[in-house]
Each structure stands twice: as structure tokens, then as C-alpha cells.
Write a structure and sequence with these properties.
Helix content: 25-40%
Number of strands: 23
Shape: globular
Radius of gyration: 27 Å
CATH superfamily of the largest domain: Pyruvate-ferredoxin oxidoreductase, PFOR, domain III
CATH architecture of the largest domain: 3-Layer(aba) Sandwich
CATH topology of the largest domain: Pyruvate-ferredoxin Oxidoreductase, domain 3
Number of helices: 20
Number of domains: 4
CATH class of the largest domain: Alpha Beta
Distance between the termini: 46 Å
Largest sheet: 8 strands, mixed
Strand content: 15-25%
Structural class: alpha/beta
Oligomer: single chain
């Protein structure tokens, strides 16, 4: 069989809590260091340890990073899932099996390598408990040999992770060496190979939640309150670690930030609003169930006009759902969160670069519009490893919005907290402690007029609500615009957002090969800008790709553009696995066949 260079997917099946993260990270970093585009996706259980976990490493010469439906190489270390894992592999695949794991009948068109992993690790690690954490590095050595991964790059990668733990580093190095030597003596190279390139120079590997935490730190966050919930916890944990390192007074060592793990999500958002009201840049992190608990406080923030940043790392629901599976099903919840009439600003990161940029942008928007800002990431972006260019150090100053200092108040005769003086729907505000007699006002979530005075006047209530709607309209000019790729002669458009972007990029190439040209709009925010209407108008039909059952983004678009609703065609994916290009292609082709038949 001819070798397939730099275009295959490796699926590693292990046990949660067995140290497989170190092994998988070592392998993926080594491939990146060889100059080959690579991505990694972790499929893990919702318990702490003991259940099956899988990690997929995709190597792609063309830089595709979406999940690939077919896996070409399997490393089967878990006896509980080995039969199912092996059965899922197709013709021509490579099976690297831990000797002794149960196997089904394996067709002759699969290549099988049976490795005595347990025997290989025994002389390296005498302690049986510790052995369970090191055995996975043996498969790194085996995989590196059969797949052509440079062992020097493997060692560099391992050293980057364990360099501060010399004993652990030596032990894991020995495990890698044992695997590589065994493979060199007993195994033929696989037909899937990593061949050195120069396509990843300067690139980094980072998770979306880590990128978001960096962005929030550079965005000036000084207060974080959160309650642990998968898959958002690593964002809060990463942010706290960054703040501990970089946000301490250089003279005294005292923290210039506050991080509080609240008793629940209700308390978390309440603390954010209190901190923000005093002038702090404050945020919380959560997922769907936590978002539900924040409903009442979110309505208060919208109506009383208190800034807040809420990162929602979406997962499968409803209820507890599938806590460790990805989704895009919180769109409508976040867009209208609260009782009564609300319209919230949403940011929709599609890349780790977006997570970093929106980590800063969210605070500017929250303070500019004096309102909650929701950043809707998802588990796929947040907790998986992505390749990226290094992030740029911010150059623009923060936008604190319409804040009146004492010297500003000295120039005016009156200050009315909720008066729109500029026609953009946004009033001016002051911060507690401003030394001027006009600075004080009462913040209330009940009926109020422009002076912040209590009222139950029907006319006043409608006037205030209309102003809040105007503020939302003004936001169209401030939110990140979509990225539009118009293809001359293309009748079909694709509209996507979030982590679906990467499957769409690959799907468009596949559709082009099959003769279907498509234009593409990558949505970055709600409310929609004029570019969205223009894009839909220019297409005969637009496929809206989203990872939920009920076509939530298509529903928002229909509400916004009822006159264009007949052009929208939902393409839905909601099994909890990251969306893949093949699924997008199949669903669009199926709908296109229907279009032809009904013309």
C-alpha cells in the first residue's frame, strides 16, 4: 500500500485518569514541531476517573482541523471498549492494540500491531499504581515509530511538559524509548506517515478557554466570580492562574484582582453585577444549566443597565444533558435571557484567536452599552487543542463608555442617570465615590424614569424600553462584523458561526470539487450587521449550519429578516460530537437534490 503522508486521523482509546493527556499532548506537539498542521479533540466522560476516554489527532497537509468522521489509525489501550473501537475502524486502517485486549473478528484488510505494553513498562516503573500513568507513553514511542514522528521532536515535546519534574521526565522518556525500540524491532512502518514540512513555524497550540482567559486578563478584568461547571471551569481556573502570576503589585506582592468561587451561579452573577456597578471590569463563566440560574439577575442588569461579561461554554442539554459533549443550543436562551422583553448582545467566537480577542472586546462592549454581554463559545472550542498564530499584544486603550468624572459633572447643570442625550440609546453613568454632588443616583430594577426615580407610569415604562431597544440598534455598528467570502457566480450561500466554521471550510472545498460553488458568511455577533442582510439577499438560498436540534440561529435570522425567511435552509448537527465536514456536505447535497426536484 502506498504511503499517505500528512493526511490521516489517529484515534487513541484509554481510561480517564490514566495520564493519557500527557501522552497525547506529547504526540500532537511533536507533529506540530515537525511543521505539519495538526489538531486534537478530546472525548471524555463526565466522571472523574475510570470511564473510557478518547483522543483524536488529525494530521492534515491542507490545514483542516475539524473532526474527521473516519479514523485511520487506532491505539486501543482500554479493554472495556476495544471491541467497539476496533469494529468502528474501516478498510485499510492500522490497529495498534494492547496485547490481551478483547477483539472482534478483524477483517484481513486491516493491519494489526499487537504490543505487550504492560510487559514493556514493568521494568521501567516498579510501582504498579504509577505504572498505570506511564504506560501510555509507551504507545507514544510505538506510534512515533510506525507513523514517522521524529523521536527528537517527541523528546522536545515531553521536556516542555515535564522539564520541571526531572524524575517524571526520565521515567516517561524511558517509556517512550521502550515503545520506539520495540516497534523498530518488530513492526513495519504504517502506510500513514508524518513527513516534515515548514507550515507551522511560529504557531502555538492552545485551548479556547485558555485563550479566553488571556484575553480577559488583557481586557482589564479585576473581578471574577464563578461556580464550577463543565466545560467552563478551565476558563476560570486558567484566568485565576494568569492573574496570580501577572496581576500583583510589584512592590507589595498584593493581588490587584479578586476571584471568588461562589456557592452557585445565582451568587456568581450577583457578585459580578455588584463589582461592575462599582467600576470593576467583572465577569463570570458558566454553561447551560448555570445560565438558566442567572436569568433574574440578567434581567436586572439589562433593565438597570449594569455592565457584565458572561462566558457561556455551551454543552449538550437540556437539564444535565451530556456534560462533556459540545453544542450550540444556548443561542435563543442567551439572546433573550430574562422574563419580559430583553435583547442581549452575543459574541460568537469561531477560533481561539476570537476567544482571545473577544475576551477583551466583551468588556468594552459591556461598558459602552452598560449591559450584559454573552460570549457563546462551546466545549469543542473551549476544551480542545487548536493550532494558532501567536496572539498580538493589545494596542488600543479600553473603552470605558460614557462615564462622567467629577470634572465632567462640574460642566453640567443636571445629571439624569437614564437620560439619552446623544440619540444612541446610551445614557451617561457615574461610579461610586465620584466627588461631586450630582454624581449620586439610585439603581433600581423596578419601574424608573430618566432620573432613576421610581414610577409605574405606563408611558414612561414604554419610553424606557424603547430607548433600550435603540441601544441594541446602536450596537450593530460596534459588534465584530461577519467575515464574508463571496464567490462570483455562486447561487448558494453558507452561514455559520462558532466551532462549525472549521467543518464548513473543509466542506466548501469538497462541494467545489463536486461542482457546487458556495459563498460563505462567518457570523461573529448578534445583533446582525447590514452585511448579513446583504449576503442573504445576494444568494438564492442560504444553508445555516448549526449544532442544535431546533435551528436556533435560523430562527433568529427569520425573526430579524422575515422577508428573507424563505431563503434560509437549516443544516443541523446535534449528537454532541464536533461537527464534521462530511456531515455538512451530505446534508447540503441532500437539500440541493430536493431543490432540483421542486423547481
Amino acid at each position: 500500500m502506498a504511503a499517505t503522508n500528512n493526511d490521516f486521523s489517529t484515534h487513541v482509546a484509554t481510561v480517564n485518569g490514566s495520564g493519557s493527556q500527557t501522552a497525547n499532548t506529547t504526540l500532537i506537539r511533536a507533529i506540530l514541531q515537525m511543521g505539519v498542521p495538526v489538531s486534537g479533540k478530546n472525548l471524555f466522560p463526565s466522571n472523574i476517573a475510570g470511564l473510557p476516554t478518547w483522543f483524536t489527532i488529525r494530521v492534515s497537509e491542507r490545514g483542516y482541523v475539524a473532526r474527521k468522521r473516519r479514523n485511520d489509525v487506532l491505539v486501543a489501550m482500554n479493554p472495556e471498549t476495544s471491541v467497539e473501537d476496533i469494529s468502528a475502524m474501516g478498510p485499510g486502517s492500522i490497529l495498534i492494540l494492547n496485547e490481551g485486549v478483547p477483539t472482534p473478528r478483524i477483517p484481513e484488510d486491516r493491519t494489526v500491531y499487537k504490543i505487550p505494553f504492560n510487559k514493556l513498562v514493568e521494568p521501567i516503573v516498579p510501582d504498579a499504581k504509577l505504572r498505570k500513568l506511564v504506560i501510555n507513553l509507551v504507545y507514544v514511542g510505538v506510534a512515533a515509530h510506525v507513523l514517522g514522528v521524529d523521536l527528537e521532536e517527541v523528546d522536545r515535546s515531553l521536556s516542555a511538559q515535564l522539564g520541571r519534574k526531572p524524575k517524571a521526565l526520565d521515567m516517561n522518556r524511558a517509556a517512550v524509548k521502550a515503545g520506539a525500540e520495540y516497534a523498530a524491532q518488530h513492526l513495519q512502518p504504517a502506510p500513514f506517515r508524518v513527513e516534515r514540512r515548514g507550515k507551522t513555524s511560529g504557531k502555538i497550540l492552545i485551548e479556547g478557554n485558555q485563550a479566553a482567559a488571556l484575553g480577559a486578563m488583557f481586557g482589564g478584568v479585576t473581578f471574577l466570580s464563578w461556580y464550577p461547571i463543565t466545560p467552563s471551569s478551565s476558563l476560570a481556573e486558567s484566568l485565576q492562574a494568569y492573574l496570580e502570576r501577572y496581576r500583583r503589585d510589584p512592590k507589595t506582592g498584593e493581588a490587584t484582582f479578586a476571584v471568588i468561587q461562589a456557592e452557585d451561579e445565582i451568587a456568581a452573577i450577583g457578585m459580578v453585577l455588584g463589582a461592575s456597578w462599582t467600576g470593576a471590569r467583572a465577569m463570570t463563566t458558566t454553561s447551560g444549566p448555570g445560565l438558566s440560574l442567572m436569568t433574574e439577575f440578567t434581567g436586572f442588569a439589562y433593565y438597570a443597565e449594569v455592565p457584565a461579561v458572561i462566558w457561556d461554554i455551551q454543552r449538550v442539554g437540556p437539564s444535565t444533558g451530556l456534560p462533556t459533549r459540545t453544542s450550540q443550543a444556548d443561542i435563543l436562551s442567551a439572546a433573550f435571557l430574562s422574563h419580559g422583553d430583553t435583547k442581549h448582545i452575543l459574541l460568537l467566537p469561531a477560533t481561539v484567536e476570537d476567544c482571545y480577542a473577544f475576551g477583551m472586546k466583551a468588556f468594552d462592549l459591556a461598558e459602552r452599552f452598560q449591559t450584559p454581554i454573552f460570549v457563546l463559545s462551546d466545549l469543542d472550542i473551549g476544551m480542545n487543542v487548536w493550532m494558532s498564530e501567536p496572539f498580538h499584544y493589545p494596542e488600543k486603550p479600553w473603552d470605558r463608555g460614557k462615564v462622567l468624572a467629577a470634572e465632567d459633572l462640574a460642566k453640567v447643570a443636571t445629571f439624569e442617570r437614564y437620560r439619552d442625550k446623544d440619540g444612541d440609546g446610551i445614557p451617561y453613568r457615574t461610579l461610586p465615590g465620584t466627588d461631586h454632588p450630582l454624581a449620586g443616583y439610585f439603581t433600581r430594577g423596578s419601574g424608573h424614569d430618566e432620573k432613576a426615580a421610581y414610577t409605574e407610569s405606563a408611558e414612561t415604562y414604554a419610553r424606557v424600553m424603547d430607548r433600550l431597544a435603540k441601544k441594541y440598534e446602536t450596537a450593530r455598528s460596534f459588534v465584530p462584523p461577519p467575515v464574508v467570502d463571496r464567490v462570483p457566480g455562486a447561487e448558494v450561500g453558507i452561514l455559520g458561526f462558532g466551532s462549525s466554521h472549521w467543518a464548513i471550510v473543509e466542506a466548501r472545498d469538497l462541494l467545489t470539487v463536486e461542482g457546487l460553488k458556495t459563498s460563505y458568511l462567518l457570523l461573529k455577533a448578534v445583533p446582525f450587521t447590514n452585511d448579513v442582510r446583504s449576503f442573504i439577499e445576494a444568494c438564492d438560498r442560504v444553508y445555516v449550519v448549526e449544532q442544535n436540534r431546533d435551528a436556533q440561529m435560523a430562527s433568529l435570522l427569520t425573526m430579524e429578516y422575515p422577508d428573507l425567511a424563505t431563503k434560509l435552509r437549516p443544516v443541523l448537527h446535534y449528537d454532541g460530537l464536533p461537527i464534521d465536514a462530511e456531515s455538512v456536505v451530505e446534508r447540503i447535497k441532500e437539500r440541493e437534490r430536493v431543490e432540483v426536484l421542486t423547481r
